[in-house]
Every structure is written in C-alpha cells, then in structure tokens.
Amino acid sequence: MANLIIEVKSESATWAIAKRIGQRLRGQEVVELISDLGGGKTSFTRALSLGAGSKDQIRSPSFTIENIYTTSSELVIHHFDLYRLSSLGLVKNQFEEILTNKQAVIVVEWADILKDVLPDKRLKIKFEVTSQNGRKLHFTYPSELAYLMKG
Asked: How many CA atoms lie within 13 A of 62 on its CB side?
C-alpha cells in the first residue's frame, strides 16, 4: 500500500486534485472518503464527478443513501453516504452487484459499516481539517490504483 499526504490551503486546490483523479477513472474503482461532518467529502465527490465528465447535480445522498451520476465517458458513479445506516441490509447486496459492473465507480462516505464488504483494492482518502478551507488529504492505495495518483 502506498501512502501520500497532500496539504491544501483552499477548496479550489482540493477540487483540482479531485478533478484530476476523476479524469483518470476507468471503471471498477472504489473510493472511500473519511472525515468528520463537514470535512469535505461531498465537495470532493462533486469535483471528482466533474473531472469524470458528469454534468449531473452532485449532492449528498444523506437521506437517499445513494445518488447515481452519469458521465460523458460512459462511467456511472455510485455515491453512497452511509452515515444514517445502522445495518447493511440491502445495501450490501447492491454494493456487491455494483462492483461487478465494469463501468461503475463507487464513492462511499461513512464506510465503516461496509468494512467487511469493501475490496482491499480501493483508494482511501482521509480529510484532516487544518483551517476553514485547508485540509491535509491522506491517500492510501494499492499499486493497482497508482494511475489515479500520478502527477
């Protein structure tokens, strides 16, 4: 597993990183976003989706559990927010089914409940708030996903 820490001082810098990662998505990637409330997970997902070519309105799926965004590159981004879940229920089966789709990308917030379902081959991003707009972004990823982090 590779580890990388990038310190950013503005939301636009965070967006630039997320858009670059979004441009490199190929399908079948899982991105796990970790932070406290208000840490920047949904904002990161918005920029990642824009980078992948989505023109959809990106918002937190806090109440719906999942939002789906289409992209110009024919990828489908499944954005999960599991903050309100106390058990996996049907989400586990849905998640496992999505993983078999070659055009699917999964972005998951509050993934602790899925820890036994998440593949080891995933990009984990932990957001550490350093100021109002500043963050330290802690990236952990296997060599198979290094293409997402080049540059």
From this structure: 6
Cβ contact 42:135 at 8 Å: no
pLDDT tens profile 62-83: 667 889 999 998 999 999 988 8
What's the whole-number average pLDDT of the chain?
90
Q: pLDDT band at residue 90, thresholds of 50, 70 and 90?
A: low
**Distance, CA of 93 to CA of 29 (rounded, Å):** 17
CB 79 within 8 A of CB 58: yes
Place of tokens 């106390």: 86
Domain range annotation of the chain: 13-137
Name the pTM for this structure. 0.92
13-137 maps to which CATH number?
Answer: 3.40.50.300
CA distance 13 to 27: 24
Contact 49, 81 (CB under 8 A): no
